[in-house]
Design a protein that fits this description.
The chain is mainly alpha-helical and 125 residues long. 68% of the residues lie in helices and 0% in strands. It is built from four helices and no strands. Helix 1 runs antiparallel to helix 4.
Length: 125
């Protein structure tokens, strides 16, 4: 009978965590070159300067939020203060949306597996 011990479980979870980090990194590069630059160009053509709202690369998260939940920009006058997502939503393809969602999945799985390893190593083991 073949059983798993705790080091096997840690190894499998560490492998999942490493793969998640690797795929998140690759998808972040793809997200930047395919989606963020496209949106930057569209906003610049409408007179919106990305430097007005890009604090520590915050536009990455704002663009993701604008694509996945454009209603978020209706509250707190974000359309007037930042940008209107309707300017570029028609140019976003279904593949762009999938890239964003898959990147979010892998970054979340990296964080969850990292937290599990920390908790397992400190408290359960």
């Amino acid at each position: 009978m073949n059983t798993f011990n705790s080091s096997d479980i840690i190894g499998i979870i560490a492998l999942i965590m490493t793969l998640s980090l690797f795929l998140t990194s690759i998808l972040t590069v793809v997200y930047y070159f395919k989606i963020v630059r496209k949106i930057d160009t569209i906003l610049a053509s409408h007179g919106v300067d990305k430097d007005d709202f890009d604090i520590t690369w915050g536009r990455f998260k704002l663009y993701k939020r604008a694509i996945l939940t454009p209603d978020f920009f209706d509250k707190d006058e974000l359309k007037e203060r930042l940008f209107d997502p309707e300017l570029f939503l028609k140019k976003i393809t279904p593949i762009d949306r999938k890239i964003i969602k898959i990147r979010a999945f892998f970054s979340t799985s990296f964080i969850v597996t990292l937290l599990f390893l920390i908790i397992y190593d400190n408290f359960i083991k």
